[in-house]
Amino acid sequence: MEIQVLTGRQFATMAHRHQTSAPLKNHISLMSDTHHEKQVTKDLIASNSASLQPLSHSSGNVVAIVIGIELYQTRAEGALTNVEYAENDARRFSEVIEEIYGDALDVTLLLNSDATISNIDYALLNSIGSLNENDTFIFYYAGHGFHDADGNRVTAWDSNAFHIQGTTLSLREKLISRLSESPCKRSLSFVDACATKFKQLVQARDVISDFDPTELREFLDATEYSALFLSCSPGEQSYPSSELKHGVWTYFLLEALSGNSDEALGPGRHLTDSGLKNYLRREVQRYDTRRTKRTKLQTPYSVISANGTFSIREVPEPQALTPIAGDFRAIKVTPTEEFFEGIVEGEIRSLSKFNKRSHRVPDYISVSTGSFLCTLIEEEINSDIQEHYVAVKQLFGLRRKDIASESAEGQGSIDTSFFRYSVNTSQIKSDPGRYKIVRRLSVRADPSQYMDKIDELFGPVFTDIVVKIDANELDYDTLVDTFEDMELQSLGVLNEHPDAMRMTFSSDHGMRISIDLGRGRISLTTGKASLPSNLLSKARSYRFGLSQNSNLLLR
């Protein structure tokens, strides 16, 4: 797999190559929402609901152009506002398609100032013009977009809000028409044009005029299979998430495409048009309900035209780890406590209740500074506990007497016969001007039978599975030897901190296993917030030498 990050000078030497052939066939079109389009054209192998076949790049090359514009050119007049998380969206999209196509992928990544009008135009012209019928073309864009009299358009780093026509790019001219004239039969394009209105700043994925799906519908009507996915219904908005570091809809789209969520998959582990539609609608609304205070819901929408259900991709069965890679039974542990954990950190001055005129950021830790922090954050924690309390009653069919719930002074908890959920707030010892909120979920028994309810209740908020242990049972040098043996077999990378009696093993399966003998705990994480069921599934790929039953790990 080759990744190129090209600058403007490198585009000056690119040859102009043009090829024309029969119109592009069998495409999926994905749009992010009515306000900002995610146009996807993607070739599908003929399929029906009885016999699904996965998308394939055949024996040709996979060529991708990925663009993320978060920071726009600074101007005295006509400057565009930043697009929150656009760069992260683009980088993560590159990672996802790398996971799907591997060494067959050649991707060009244009970020911020490299994504000029001329660079984007040249990249599309030359890449599409060089494709043949066996190639697969992938295009991803994250930035500002809008619709005007000439159709749907996207911006570049050097676009000018006061000179839109001359400084933006037409999707029909630069992307759709070129793909239609190309012999390439496999093309997947996402355009996430989002974030703000040009004339009015709002924290929503919105634009000066709704994107018009009619232009794409005319193109899609000529195809045998087509689907149009939107992140929200007409009249709604699509929001970014500071917790997920993505747009909410984009986050779950990437989860589905990367195969991280089994809930999105159908029979044979196929991600189908209907499966993706239902998954996005369910998960986006679930997240909005559980994790935000917005009164207006975001309702994903889709327009699908096909003879039957078709497969967007087939997700392979998780590879069974070899005994050496996944077998940690030589590491004997006695769990004393185990839980899901998620930690959020931030500046105390950034809290909504912090008054910059009358309050002072603490530079030490004491009882009084701790009480001050709890006063600032108490309302948020109380709201968190109350919202989960109401949801617990509904999801688990419990009565008030079945639930012990309390919250005060920046702390809170919910206890049921199924689990205990706690939230604790404190200053960070190494930086008293910052705070952290620690959320933990302890289950009373094996949660497999009700993980769907746990997922719906909490969403992707936890990053780790933590198991507290009796550290006296383990020898630091023996643990290092075990992980060094795995490192020699290219099964992962070991980082050790002998002074702190701590080590971290990053496996080639994407899981980080940290053993801290000083604190007596083992943590397993993928490094990002995940649904509890996904985190549990990955953690259970590893087997430890448990001296007693565990609710989260397998023997």
Polypeptide structure, described:
The chain is an alpha/beta fold and 555 residues long. It folds into two domains: 2-230, 3-Layer(aba) Sandwich (Rossmann fold); 323-546, no CATH class. It has 13 helices and 27 strands. It has helices at 8-11, 86-101, 117-129, 164-167, 171-181, 214-220, 248-257, 273-291, 323-326, 367-396, 451-458, 476-488, 532-539, and strands at residues 2-4, 29-31, 62-68, 105-111, 136-143, 145-148, 151-155, 168-170, 186-193, 226-230, 240-241, 246-247, 270-272, 301-305, 311-314, 327-333, 335-347, 404-408, 411-415, 419-428, 431-443, 462-469, 492-497, 502-507, 512-516, 521-530, 543-546. Strand 20 and strand 21 (431-443) form a beta hairpin. Helix 2 runs parallel beside helix 7 (248-257), helix 3 (117-129) packs parallel to helix 5 and helix 7 packs across helix 8 (273-291). The longest helix is centred in the C-terminal third of the chain and has 30 residues, at 367-396.
